[in-house]
Amino acid sequence: MSHHVPSGENHVVDLAVIGAGINGLAIARDAAARGLRVIVVDRADVGSGTSSTSSRLIHGGLKYLERYDFALVHESIRERHLLFRTAPHLVRDYPMLIPFYKGNTRPGTLIRLGLLAFDLLALGRGRGLSRTVPVRTVARRWPTLSRDGLRGAALFHDAQVPWAERLCVELFLDARRLGARVLTYTSVTGLVVEGDRVAGLRTEDVRTGARGEIRAAVTVNAAGPWIDRILDGQIESRRLNGGTKGSHVVLDPFPGAPDTCIFFEAAADGRPIFVFPWQGRYVLGSTDLTYEGDLDEVVASDTEIEYLLAETNRIFPGAGLTPSDVLWSVAGIRPLPYTSGVSDNAKISRGHTVLDHGPAYRGLLTVIGGKLTTHRALAEDVTDAALRVLGRRPRPCVTRERPLPGAETSAWPEFVRDFLRDSPLDRASSRRLLQLYGVRARRVLEIAAGDPSLAEVVDKETGALAAEVVMAVREEGAVTLADVMLRRILVGLNGDMGLNSAATCADVAVRHLGWDEDRARSEVAAYERELRRHRPRALAEAAGAGGSTGGGVGGSRGSGRTA
């Protein structure tokens, strides 16, 4: 896979997409499936920006009923239903309890009515009807939940994508298979503006400095929170992005931690927040703050962390959480439309708009807004708009029914049963492979079977195999160690953010992928630098102890157990 446009080489395509987040990748997939020639460029890895900082929930749109945004609710319900079918390995039913407390700005009666309306809108496309839970049942089933002012609760069924990063990777794989070219670590240095037309973009390889140009009939600015930066100094435009900052924290199980998601109203500001189980740990989130700072330096603040811990301690009186309990945090900017004079950020639309800059700048589209759940619908809208700009007849969209690569089986439950029966790994490791790769889990085992050293475990906590590192680079477009750890094999999202396995994974790259020792050491150091924005406790502890986090590269050869 080439990751840059070679110097002096001009590419001519129908569609050039700026941004390889979930929306940009979905656009590339949809457009390529409809026969367009597509190139996507991103200055970093696929899904490495906003797409990896969400709450990892596939919302059916319950929250949007509060703003009477029925169109977005309908779209969210439909897209959630489609994801259950096209990505069953990545998206799963996720029940959540909504407790009602005295003094809430949203009384229980209002929430019950909202749930009833939602169930009617989702009829035939949900995973169970909502139901009221009386106080005594809450006390029995969720005994650690505060009963101070409790007026009852409701159990609601939504969906979760535990590994949003893998959703991006699978969109990338399918887009590439359909003919799209994805150029990671390729920055956009400018738009090609010729009179009243945008005719493409200029690029520079982030790693080598090589420059190139992409000529495109239509250019799509899908850079999320960075859309204004792409346009700045290039074309005249009003401010388009007004994204708000959302932060989460990750913790180990704590005293009184629930076994289901709790979706409750914060006492401090009335914002709905979550406490939810995630891969054996818990996520608290999120905040929703106006943000005018550097989009490349977004970090969860002490104030946000204290806010999330205080609200969790209030709802779970026995938790006793302090900042020292936080394993790591994550913060990102929601790509919301700029809206002046809004006192409550929750009132800013979570829908998306496709802005055609013509006739002043023909051939340029900018995507404003968008969210994880509705990425496919957004892509369909963008491709429709691009076809109109191209003056071509409408072409049918196929992504509503097209499964993602990890779901290419006519019978997912049967595949799971057969894989668990035949896998040489223990059951927990086999299930992990299924949850990350779906039917492509068999490819991991094939690679491991071809070389006994690739059956070694590179991360004790997760049981990840060396074969996954090799597949990440050779077949899934990973370039750096961070790409491998954080967005492919995902050991970077364990308790210590993969700090103890980074050198081991880099050593696999030395032995099997052509890295030399200098490259490996450099990649481990770069990985630790990338982690600093997450404020991992393990990194701070290692720095305080004055020791190394992961050992020297080359010293871990053969240290893992075999499958």
Automatic annotation (TrEMBL):
Pfam families on file: DAO, DAO_C
Superkingdom in the source lineage: Bacteria
GO BP annotations listed: glycerol-3-phosphate catabolic process
Keyword Transmembrane among record annotations: no
Keyword terms of this UniProt record: FAD, Flavoprotein, Oxidoreductase
The FAD dependent oxidoreductase domain, residue ranges: 14-375
GO function terms (MF aspect): glycerol-3-phosphate dehydrogenase (quinone) activity
Biased composition (Gly residues): 544-563
Domain Alpha-glycerophosphate oxidase C-terminal: 397-519
InterPro entries: DAO_C, DAO_C_sf, FAD-dep_OxRdtase, FAD/NAD-bd_sf, G3P_DH_FAD-dep
Keyword Oxidoreductase: yes
Region described as Disordered: spans on this chain: 538-563
Cofactor section: FAD
Family: Belongs to the FAD-dependent glycerol-3-phosphate dehydrogenase family.
UniProt protein name: Glycerol-3-phosphate dehydrogenase/oxidase
Organism of origin: Microbispora triticiradicis
Lineage, top ranks: Bacteria, Bacillati, Actinomycetota, Actinomycetes, Streptosporangiales
